[in-house]
Write a structure and sequence with these properties.
eight-stranded mixed β-sheet, about 40% helix, alpha/beta
Amino acid sequence: MRRVWRPLWKNAPLSLPEHNGVATSPLSQTCVVAVVGAGAMGAGIAQVAAAAGHTVRLLDTRPHAAAAAIEGVRAQFGRMADKGKLSAEAALAAGQRLQVAENLTNLAGCGLVIEAIVESLEAKQKLYADLEAIVAVDCIFGTNTSSISVTAIGAALQHPERLAGLHFFNPAPLMALVEVVSGIATDSTVAATLFATAAAWGKTPVHAQSTPGFIVNRVARPYYAEALRLAQEGAADYATLDAVMREAGGFRMGPFELMDMIGHDVNFAVTQSVWRAFYHDPRFLPSLIQQALVDAGFYGKKRGRGFYDYREGAAKPLPQTEAAQPFVEALTLFGTSPVVEALAARLTFSGTVFARQPEADDGRIANMGLATLYVTDGRSATQRAAESGVANTVLIDLALDYTTAPRLAIAAAAQCDPLATASAVGGLQAAGFAVSRFLDVPGLAVMRSVAMLANEAADAVNQGVCSAAAADAAMRLGVNYPRGPLAWADAVGVARIKTVLANLGASYGEDRYRISPLIQRAVFAGKTLHDC
């Protein structure tokens, strides 16, 4: 007889805000948690649950793998006690809550089963289908999949409503973010309970719907894709692009060093997976450069070669930095925008004399000798010079904070006098910037990357995948972005982001740069993305 699924925890005391009309409490510490898969991720999740007070049963089909993982976690608890992060008693108690499960039947009394096994739809479906005959009808299933549809996993179950994604990030004990992913059939109380439980475990959970890539693996694609396109176009070398994204954009790692660390076999596979899942949407188009690295077996750090050479004796290349140029005597700043105020502060600090003028009609931020400087708006410098009639046009890239950024990227129009370019470099150097000159590509590096990250996050929100707050939190906590992409777009100005995207689309003639309806709606309404 088919058993009726009843979410027994619905009668628990309510203690958290509602989500989709559902308010619930976390699973009690008396709930036994099972983790299937004792690799790095499974062991990390087991550590988190045990530290939170749960008895944890760890299962792995490999002989002795679960026991070895538990030994490693107990050692980690011991190290935490040695550093004063846990008392010796708490570390011992947490370690004792970890148990080896010999087989699936040992999971019969568990109230939550989290799988962290191979990324295979068939394997995950079989595991949970087998468990349905073993565990109680109110046991929750939490899949740690990073890319497989939660809806598809649940399709093989008698009670798909009990299944939700519980996507931790590696290393699970250290990374704060957990994506709680609902499939079509997921009961809202299950999602709310997992959300509350993750929060009780000291994590920052975000709700997401089961669409390709969820939040992080979807929204992050432009960070890699735009960098790869810039490299393919010869805008700058890998080291320079990485340096600009770190030192101007404020990202913890540049895209090429990050891909090398992740591994190109993994990163390229995720890109392909998302691209196929979105029916070959050009926004997610894989790169031929990365395909070549995978074909060569140059997977990054773990293989000794990727974009960079990690073999013994190899030196990492330095970013291209313009040689020192003579000081520009004629230097005028226009308006009071954040970039202009930052330039004024930096020039004043260096003792450089400059003049101030009201905001210019054409949006220029400075005249430096023969050069006229603008912040990129998604057009190339050459196009902007042709359309404005200002031949000596030099563009600067976006920076997270122009006041503190150590480096800026620039591009000069093809019409620009070399002496004008040199004077622009000299003026920026007087303000304390290391200057990297790019080939004249539309949007430069930071601006086009931020615009595309914001565009993808906006589309995720517009399509009901997550809230704006969840999108920003996921990208800050899941991949350590310096600012959530939607908050960043609000800070830059949504209308400005829309202009950049429109100009990129016009320059390339590709649907890749189509503007999210949410961005358009925000601009038309005169609102921020978080308020729209």
